[in-house]
Amino acid sequence: MNNKKANEQAKPAGYKVPKFEIGDLAVYPAHGVGVIEAIEKKVVNGETHDFYMMKVLENNMTIMIPTWNVESVGLREVINEKEIPKIYKVMKERKDNPLDNQTWNRRYREYMDKIKTGSLYDVAEVYRDLSILKFTKDLSFGERKLFDTATVLLVKELSTAKNTDEETILLEIQSFFVPEEPEEPEEPEDSKDPKNADTPES
Fold first, then answer.
1. What φ, ψ does residue 187 adopt, rounded to 5°?
2. What are the residue boundaries of the structural domains of the chain, listed by start?
3. Which of 96, 125, 145, 175 is the most buried (most CB within 10 A)?
4. Which pTM does this prediction carry?
């Protein structure tokens, strides 16, 4: 999936390219929530341009983003709190087709592409699918890394949007994937009949 195409397809009606000020929170694809710490001028190919200097909250990495290229790179605002139920709905959905029928390589590429779109809905799908897959098999090293990445991206942005602590959000989304308890087999009817009980030998 092409990231630029994915970002274009995800734009709602009336979409406007976001503009950020120093101190604003923003989301960068595959890195998550960050804060715009500065807007600096840089000379590129002999021309002066403005760049957002964004520090990623999760790891303090600084990313330099051209202010004129926000749409192409997928920089966006943190989701509105009203969108959170929609994100939760995505995670609660269940597919009919078993996920482990896909090859590992195909599944990995598909999930990586979704994470790179920057859409929290896509990230929620990755988290959901890998959470379900964990019930049927041990995740590979690559799948585990994708799962951890999706978890961090989800928890950080949801807790920011909801203005609550990350532990609360983590417990909430984990609760969507509690394995069902196996049903205990019913006791045969004849075993309940006292007439069928063994009588002690004299």
1. -75, 130
2. 18-73, 81-177
3. 125
4. 0.79
